[in-house]
Every structure is written in structure tokens, then in C-alpha cells.
Amino acid sequence: MFRRGLLLAAALLALAACKDPGSAVNEPAPTGPGVKGAPDLALGEAVKAQGATLRTIRARRRLICGVNTGLIGFAFTDNRGQWRGFDIDFCRATAAAVLGDINAVRYVPLGSTERFTALQSGEVDVLWRNTSWTFSRDAGNRLDFGSINYFDGQGFLVRKSLGLKSATELNGARICVQTGSTTELNVADFFRSKGLKYTPVVVDTEDQAHAAYAKEACDALTADMSELAAVRAILDNPDTHMLLPEVISKEPFGPVVRQGDDQWEDIIRWTLYATILAEEFGITDRNVDEMRRTSANPEVRRLLGVEPGFGKMLGLSDDWAYRAIKAEGNYGQIFERNIGRNSPLKLERGMNALWNAQKPGLMYAPPMR
Amino acid sequence: MSAAMRPPPRRTALQWARTNLFATPLDAGLTVILSLGAAWLAWSLIDWAVLQATFTGESRSACKGSGACWALVTARWPQLFTGFYPEGHRWRVAAATLLLLMAAAPFAMRHAKAWTYLLAPAGIVLAFMVMGGAHVLPGVPSEYWGGVFLNLLIGVTGAIFALPIGVLLALGRRSNLPIVKALSVGFIEIVRGVPLITLLFMASVMLPLFMPTGVTLSRLMRALVVITLFEAAYMAEGVRGGLQATPDGQREAAKALGLGPVRTTLLVVLPQALRIAIPALVNSFIGLFKDTTLVFVIGLLEVTGVARQALADYAWQGKDVEAFAFIAAVFWVVCFAMSRFAAALERAPKVKPVQEPA
Amino acid sequence: MSRPPIPIRARIGGRAGLVAQILLLGAVVLLLAWLARNAAANIAARGLASGYDFLGRSAGFDISQHLIAYAPEDTYWRVFLVGAVNTLLVSVLGIVSATALGVLVGVMRVSRNWIARTVATVYVEVVRNIPLPIQILVWYSLMLIAPPPRAALKLGDHIALSNRGLYLPWPQPSTQWLYTLAWIAVSVAAGAVLERWLDRQSRISGVARSFWPGWMLTIIGTAFALTVADNPESWSFPRFHGFDFEGGLVLAPALVALWAALTFYTAGFIGEVVRGGIVAVAPGQGEAARSLGLSDGQALRLVILPQAFRVIVPPLASQYLNLVKNSSLAVIIGYPDLVATFGGTVLNQTGQAIECLSLVMAFYLAVSLTISVLMNAWNARTAAWSAR
Question: C346 and C296 in one domain?
Fold first, then answer.
């Protein structure tokens, strides 16, 4: 009896002390050049202090990127098991900037519930995972949002023949809406807050919503702006349809890092800004070498590391942005490749166009100086 | 239409049909309706899954017919079986699978030598080392393991480590010591009272909170800890059934021979109880193996997770039924074979009864 | 029961047993304390809130299906209730339909008809050996590729199935229903009383009854009440109008898929339980019943099933419990059950993992406990019967 009790206790303690062979193994060394001069740091040390995240990443020579478990255009794996998508490209650009190797990334697919836990416990270094930036997520969880890499929001698509100028004139309209999404809630909230009435024509999928609108089953179609633009593009006479100016919800997606390591947050933020600045200056993955040699623009020279000293401020080498752009191209290229016109999603740039583009959007990076 | 109690005597085919198919008008009607229904169902299934199906292609646009689009499976079969394990290292997955099967084998045999059981944990540790690299082979972290292999790994590891804990819990539940009994009963009933999915959520969001600062377990490890404890509670009930079925005379005889309570339990009662419990334990393992399709909810890329990833690729959007039908078929083959096996064990003559003293 | 009473010394296991138990208890307490300390440190380090105060805060998100009144302004506690009701709804629906199908399958499994036997066997072997999550996903995919409302599959005039859900007639609230319900209640009561009386008569006279005037009374009464109530004012029927059905009751695709999967999966297991119960009744019972002149159906209904029932109930209760737990798989297709709402969205919003998951687990434990208490009460009653 005595021994049985002891055995039970021992078993419980053994379980509690269970060690993790998964984290004890080493991955194959990255193939790229790697970055020298960083002090090594034992794995598993608390990742809290200033610069600790960067030191940890360098010691393991790999970035661990939290991504969506599967979202068309943003994060998915192809037939050969390679990760692809808009968010994935930012992971690769970050790896290029920090480690000089786009393949030095380990992707950890995360569900929506566990993504913040995984980040807080140090399981991943950064979330590039279509996460909407909200007050309580930013302020309440010891998390920080780097910036915004994709603006989305809900709007209305109508026929120009109705002669509408604003969504507030939609009183009494029939509105096609996809059910079960926040879309449905937002439209209800919007009309309630304005004291207007509407008849929802509820459908189950995006395709059905498009078809219903195309067959004039409803006066307006409501969905995320990016999607509405895509719908308008495939309608018979795109010019006879228009987007109303109101955006009734905001979904700003951005990268998330742990609070307290400002250096790492800066690296993430400026990796994104580097791609935006590159688009602004017309730098692409193809002409980046030439620009680096020939450009006289001081901002370009600083960005691409011709003028020394800027990378050091981030704790990186001076060619950090050059490496990211060389690897993945500028913001516009990343956008077009994954979700833009050259992709199955065929999304318009819309709000995600540069601030100074012909059709201005919200993409704006602070100056490089 | 009842009556299993009337075994039909052997007669000619016509007579057989009369008793087995057309005994009464009601029976005849039932026969006709059911055969037509079954034939229609079988035909539509074959038509969809084989005759009209497309078997190869790089994306769904290759699937022109009205049948199933198996191109999804053929284009991604290495992923479906081995997850995202690096190409060129997949032989290690095969080796680890073999090790796992070898580790599990003694538990399926009725007369395996005792020492073979002790090799099981060694086999599992070896499988983990082959997969992970163990500083000898190039390391591959557990985020890259996946597919059907991961289901097998979780199932076998969970079951083998759960067994000793389950035995302890079962003994604890039958113990005379009130605290031991209360703790065992409490653990078993709590774990059996809640759905596995809540325990998996616990593994993914609560377990990290309970670890000392700086210690992180990989998500596979966390899932394994929870699944092992979960399975232990179910195995405890199987073992308890075996303990109850062991004749009291055995215990008394051992006592009369001068064996102490510990040795009586270890040498006399447990070996018999476990043998009786084997079919129940195999059934419990089948349940666990089926449950492993759920761990994708915490981001582990077992076969369901891999399939869902494939469906998030624009190339395969909307081919859900094919992806899940494939998984269903794989699991059906494995689980059906195992359940037949458990049934055969149940039918086989029980442990030879020790002669009762006259 | 055959064991002799254990002396008190043995019950506490002597001095060695006492020491071992105290050590074990100490180890468990230490382990729990260690976990609690880690949790406290981690929660502080991550700036997470703790405690159940959040239950009073406004949730701010909507739930697509709620049987009790709910709006986004309601509290998190209300979300818990809505989720729990949704879990119970799909569980009760599943238990009713799985039992009906399971009994049918179980009886078919022991049928004399070869085709019936084979079909039932194939059915059981297929559904039991395919993981339930996969079955749920398959049903859900099938729901989504069902025809759109315009081309909905129709069963009669009043039931339709489309990719937006299952449409059913639903009673229109009106005072007329009160009369109808009262009428139904009266017919059921009258039928039951008559049945009881006739039963006693037949037991006294020893003449087996072959038909049931009492239940017929009930059925006729109920049918009459429903026919009277069957007018356009008292029912809301789903009618195709414009782009979708209007009126009636709509069950969302996720609910239908979950319900179907739980029904077909659990029916396989219940079928085996029922078969086991029937087989457990001594074969002589059926033969004796028939030699007394009872038909096959009568033998099954009057002799075999009542006896099989006692064997069936305990494993049946555990299947019900499994069904309730399995309904938590709702989360993989987005049916707003307790796990999906409270263990999912609320946890996601508040970040209070320990609090949310403990409440969810407490709910399932309470359900388990309730079912086992009912089971034990039932066992005690049947034990008393057989002792009589």
C-alpha cells in the first residue's frame, strides 16, 4: 500500500517535470550568409528585456513567425508544402532583414484563440497574422501592434442609376449581406444608429451575395471594401456601379509583438515601412541593386544602407532594408503578387494604396532620416 | 422481425431466401425497399468516387467531371501522410512509424513476454529521436511533423504512457485507503466528465500559464501531456473492469501462499486483470486514435489540419468533401481492422482458469 | 458485496498506509501550490486580469443563434447562458433522434431478414469507425453545397432544405394554442388512465391485449387538436419569397450538420447497445412468448424489449453523456455552443483562460453529474423491482 501511494505520487511528479524533446533539437542551419557579431544567448531565457528578442532570434538563427492556420491569399501552403501569401511574405521580409535569409523562418500556424498566448509565452517572435488592431488588444494584453499592413473596412456597392451620394440615403433599401459574419452586425448597427430602416437579403456565401446583387435582387451590396471592389471589377459594366463613401467598420490588420522589447517592435515596424518606402521611391526587387549604386536621393541612400549608421540604430546591419526589398520586393509587389490583380483574389489597392498614389490610400511611412 | 434467437438451419438457396428475405409480406417489402435503397446508394457512391472522378492534377481546375476531385489527395499525399517534414528526410517518418508500430505490438498480443512491454516507451523515445534528430541527424522541430503520422504518434504515445497511469488510477480507485481512493475517483470522474476539446484548449492556452517562467513546452508536448492524462482516465475504467473480473479466489490463494499485498497485486492480480481488459483497452485506443483528428483545433497539423490547409489554397477551394472523405476512408480502414481484432480477442478463450482447490 | 467487512485498521491501511497517504496528499497539495504560484507570476507578467468580474461586463458581440433573449449589450454571463442553452438544444435534439434511429438499427441488427441485418451491420461499422470530427465536417460541407433557396429540396409543402438551413413550420403564438395544448393534455391523460385500467384488467383475466384503445384515444385526440389548429393563422410556414424563405423556423446549416452528425454517429453506438440488450435476454423468452401465441412483434414489444431495457439503460445513459460532450465539436463548424462562444470568443476577448475554461468545464461536469445521479436513482429503482 505504502509503495502504491509513493508510485502514484512519483508518477504525478514525473509528469509535472516532463521535459520537452521538441525544443531540444536543432534545426538545420539556415543556408544564407547569416549575421555575425551578435552575442549568443541560451535558448529559453526569459524574453522580456530590451533587445532580447533579437538576440534570441540570432542565437537560434531563425525567426519564428505566428501565422494563420489557413486563409486564402494571406497564409496557406501550396502543393509542395511551401507557405505562401501576403502575411507570409512579410515573415520572409523580416527574416531577410534580421538574418539575411528568407528561408530562416519557422511558421507556427495559430488559431484565433491561442495566437496571443503563443506570442506572450515566447512560442513565436511575431504575429504576422491578419489581426485587427483594437484598443483592448493593444492596451489590455501586454501586446503591441507594430503598424498596419492591410486596411480593410465595410462599405456599400450601389448602382449609379440610383443617384445616391451617401449611405444615409439608403433608407428603406434592400441590402444583400452575407450571413454569420460581422458584416451583418455592422450593417445592423449602422442603420440603427442612423435611425434608418432596411430589408436585409441574407445569403450564405460571398458568391451568392455577388450573384444576388448582379441580378438586382437588392439595391445595395455590403461587404468589406476590398471585396466590393473585386465584385465591381467582374460585373458586366463596372462603370455603372459605385462604392458609397461611408466605411462603416474598421479592420486594420497589423503585426503584433510582445510589449517591452521596443527594439524588436521597431524592427518589425520598420521592415513594413521599408517596403512602403520602397514603393514610394519606385524601388523593386529587380532594380534595387541598380538604385543602390546609382540613386542620388538621400532617403533612398539611407534606406538601402549606402549612407552608413541607420541599420545600427535597429541593432541590424546597414543593408537590412536592402535585403528585405531584394527578397520580397516593395509593398505594392507583395500586394499584387498575393491578393492584387495578378492573384485569384483580384483585389483593388483601395485604402491600401500609397498616400500619394493617383487614387490615394492610407499607406504612409514616416520619412527615412 | 426480431429473433436472433432462431439460427436458420442450412437449406437450399431458395429456402434460405424464404426464411431470410421473404418470410412475411412485411419482410418481403422490407427486403425490396432496403435492397433498392442500398443498391442506389452504392451505385451513386461508386459513380461519384470512381467512375466520374478525376485522379490527377495540380489544382481544382483539372477536375472537369461531375465526380470526386481526388487530384487534391494525389497532389498533396506526402503532406497528408508526413506533414511538412522536409523532403529527403521522409524516410525518418517511415522509420519512426515502424518504431511506433513495434512499440505498440506487444499490447496487441495476448501472450507477449513481460519485458517486451518495457521496450514500448523506449521505442517511442527512439521514434521521437529519429523524428527530431537528437543531435545526430539534422534537427527537425515538431512544428514540421504532421499528417497521418502525427495522428499515429499522438495516439500511440498517449496510449502507452496512459496505461501505467491508468493502472495506478484503477488500483487507487479500488484501494482501501480513503485519500488515495478519493484522489483517483476525483481525477477519473473529472477527466471523463468534460469534453476532450476543453482539455485541448487547456493545453493550448492554460498550460503555458502554469509553467515556471522561462520554461516553454512545444505545443505537441502540451497536447501529449493532456491526451495522456485524458486517455489514462478512460484506461483506468477498462483496467477496473479487468480487476473486477479477476476472481477473488486468486487474491485469497496468493495471500494463503504468503504473498504480501503489493506482490499479490503485481504478480497475481494485475497480469490476469490486464489480459481480461485487453479488448476494452484496444477499444479505448480506437477511440483515442479517432479523437486525434481533433488536435488541429490547437494548431497541430495532423491530417485534418493538413486537409484544412489544402482547402485554404485557392487551388483547392471548395473541395472539402473529397478531403474529408479521404481522411474518413483512411481512419475507417485502420479503426475497422483494430475493432475486428478487439472482437476476435474478446471471442478467444479467456485466461485459462486456475484450478480451484477441490 | 461478497467481501467481508473490512476492519477499520485495514481501511486506513495501517501506519504505513497512513504515512503514504499523507505524503501523497502533501505531494498533490505542493504540486497544486506550485502550479498556482506559476500561474500568478505569469498572469502578472502578461498583464492579464484575473477573477470573475468580467462576467458582469458587456460582451459587445452578437451570437447568431440564441433561444433566450440576447443582444450585444448583454453581459458575458448572458453569453454563458446562451451558449449553454445552445449546447443543451443540440444535445436534446441529438438524443431524441439518435435514440429513435439507434433502436431501429439495434432491432434491425438482430432481424431475421438478411438484408435488414446486413444494412444495419454495414451502417454500424461505417459510422463507428470514422472519427466524429470528420463526420461533422463532411455534413457541414454537404450542407454548404446543398441547392440555394430558389431550388431548395422540399419534403412535402412545409419542409425545405437549402444551403441556408433547414426550414420547418413553427406555431404562431396565439391564444388558440392554449386550447389546443389543453386538449392534447386532456387526451394524453385520459388515454393513460384508460390504458392503465385495461392493463390491470388484462393482468387479472390473463388475456393478452392486442390493441390499445387508450393510446388510440390519445392519438385521435391529439390529431383532432392539431387538425383544428391547422389553419394559416396558427402556423407559420416557410414560404419562398423573393430570394429566401420567410416565416417558419430556420435551423442554421451548422446546427443541422452538427445534429445530423451526432445523430448518425451516436445511433451506431446506441444500435449496438440495443442489440446487446436484446441478445442478453435469454433466447427461451422469445420462444416461450411465441409458443404462448404471441406474434413476433408482440414478443419483441411485450417480452423481449421490456427485459432488454434493464440491460440497455446504463450503457445508453453513458452514450447520452458522450453525445453531450461530443456536441462541443460544434466549435469546428461555428455552431455557437458553450465551447465556441464562452471558451472561444469570450476567452479571445478577455484573455482570461483559466476563468473561462473552468466555467465551461464546470458546466459539463454538472451535466455529467446530473446524468449519473439520475442513472443511480434509476438503478436503485430497478434493483428494488427485481428484488420484489
Answer: yes
Distance CA A340, CA A360 (A): 16
CATH number, domain containing residue A134: 3.40.190.10
- Between the two ends of chain A, the Cα-to-Cα distance in Å is 75
Mean pLDDT of A80-88: 92
Provide the b/e sequence for B114-141 (b: ≥16 CB within 10 Å).
eeebeebeebbebbbbbbbbbeeeebbb
Neighbors of chain C by Cβ distance (3+ pairs < 8 Å): A, B
Q: Which residue has the cell 527594439?
A: A263
Distance CA B160, CA B167 (A): 11
* Beta carbons within 8 Å of A199's beta carbon, 6+ residues apart: A172, A173, A174, A175
Q: In what order do the strands lie in the sheet with C159-162?
A: C153-155, C159-162, C165-168, C249-251
Distances A148 to A87, A90, A159, A343, B82 between C-alpha atoms, Å: 12, 12, 31, 21, 36
- Could you tell me the CA-to-CA distances from B351 to A336, A363, B105, B257, B263 in Å, in that order? 70, 76, 20, 21, 20
Gap between the Cα atoms of A308 and A322, Å rounded? 13
Positive or negative CA dihedral for C253, C254, C257, C259?
negative
Instruction: Judge whether B16 lies within some domain.
Output: no
Cβ pair A147, A272 in contact under 8 A? yes
Sign of CA dihedral C367, C373, C377, C379: positive
User: How many CB atoms neighbour CB C227 within 10 A?
Assistant: 10
Question: In chain C, how many domains are there?
Answer: 2
Segments in B83-210 forming alpha helices (H)? 90-108, 114-132, 147-173, 178-193, 196-201, 207-210
User: Strand, coil or helix: what is A165?
Assistant: coil
One-letter identity of residue A149: N
Question: Which of C135, C140, C332 minimises the CB distance to B297?
Answer: C332
Tell me which chains share at least 3 CB pairs under 8 Å with chain B: A, C
The pLDDT assigned to C10 comes to 55
CB B9 within 8 A of CB C306: no
- The torsion defined by the Cα of A315, A318, A322 and A323, in degrees rounded to 10, comes to -50
Domain around B184? 72-347
The reply to whether C19 and C88 lie within a common domain is: no
Residues of chain A contacting C253 with CB distance shorter than 8 Å: 204
Q: Which domain holds residue A87?
A: 52-151+252-352
Which structural domain, as residue segments, surrounds residue C360? 76-122+253-387
Which of B:15-54 have CB within 8 Å of A?
Answer: none
Beta partners for residue A126, in sequence order: A65
- Which residue type occupies B9? P
Inspect the interface and report whether the beta carbons of A11 and B168 lie closer than 8 Å: yes
What's the pLDDT band for B349 if we cut at 50, 70, 90?
A: low
Position of cell 479503426?
B335
Q: Is residue B8 part of a domain?
A: no
Angle CA B150–C342–B291, to nearest 5:
25
Q: Are residues C13 and C118 in the same domain?
A: no
Residues A158 and A147 in one domain: no
Which pLDDT tens digit goes with each residue over B189-245?
Answer: 999 999 999 999 999 888 888 988 777 788 899 999 999 999 999 999 999 999 988
In angstroms, the CA B144 to CA B219 distance is 12
pTM of the predicted model as reported, rounded to 2 decimal places = 0.82
Please state the rounded mean pLDDT for residues C15-20.
82
Phi then psi for residue A155, to 5 deg, are: -145, -165
A185 touching C, CB under 8 A?
Answer: yes
Same domain? C377 vs C276: yes
Chain B, 292-321: which have a CB under 8 Å from a chain A CB? 296-299, 301, 305, 308-315, 317
Measured N-to-C along each axis, helices C253-280 and C76-109 cross at an angle, to the nearest 10 degrees, of 40
